[in-house]
């Protein structure tokens, strides 16, 4: 099996004393009625009970992600019917209910949007978004253009990360898996005074052995060498009804998953190189494929309670760069290749929202 981790949690090792195995009887008057757990989502740009929203939405909890081994958006297909992420030459292209696009290039955006903490990620290039230390993931099936704009024809995936609340807390995890894969992630949060809190989350994984091999050069392919994700959130409440939230993030990925290969069983003339029927993860290419991407950004969210409504402004800046090499003809002959593919992205966004209160007249 692939990608099975053995993890050790520092929090589990810090238990101070054994628990007493004694169960006290419960009086019938103290028993509560069994009902559905309330799930709060922001599918309509404000916090509401999932049961009250007339939208095709699925909310994924951190426990569901951990139990299913899902660590990135590509893995969400195991939990969300109809949601897939197809790996392109240098991009990850999301699809919802069959709606999506393989068209890539500067200024071209996917019809299935990706949001992180209310900030729109316009480029399909760059470091993929990991799902460590998140509060929940909301997948809204489209169309969702009314509240999320023209790039949500098929829907969107919205990642909401954990928010510091002033308590001091540290979590550390380490894991090892097949293909000589190591993974470390951690989360730390604390408060500074009654009105300021911050946190830091970090994740680093390294797969040293690839799933396949380039039979021309003998080097491993389909390997994610390094995946680093850093994020910090600062929350300040200088006055009643006023909240400032600043978020800083950085991601870096080095991988060779952008592999092209001839369909197994295809007969190639000797001019184009060896015929083979190897593993689906192998290739026979004159170029060793690679994809290196890095990027990050900063956002500032200002929230003001006006009594009858909430006034919210989200301003964000993002920048990323991608370098890749790929063999388009997937043969050992120098025929059609991209070496290198270079893509730089810069994004500025600002969104002003006036949100009515749930249950209000508007």
Which sequence of strands runs across the widest sheet?
1-11-12-13-16-17-18-19-20
What is the arithmetic mean of pLDDT?
A: 82
- The rough form would be described as elongated
Discrete helix count:
2
Q: What fraction of the residues are assigned to beta strands by DSSP? A: over 45%
Helix fraction? under 10%
* CA distance, first residue to last residue: 53 Å
Total strands: the figure is 20
Biggest sheet details: 9 strands, antiparallel
**From N to C, what is the helix and strand string?**
EEEEHEEEEEHEEEEEEEEEEE
Radius of gyration: 23 Å
Q: From the helix content, strand content and strand pairing, which structural class follows?
A: mainly beta
Question: Low-confidence parts lasting 5 or more residues at pLDDT below 50?
Answer: 1-34
Short characterization:
The chain has helices at residues 62-68, 145-148, and strands at residues 6-9, 40-41, 48-49, 57-60, 83-87, 92-96, 112-116, 119-120, 134-141, 155-161, 169-177, 181-191, 196-207, 212-213, 220-221, 224-239, 242-255, 290-305, 309-327, 337-356. The protein is mostly beta strands.
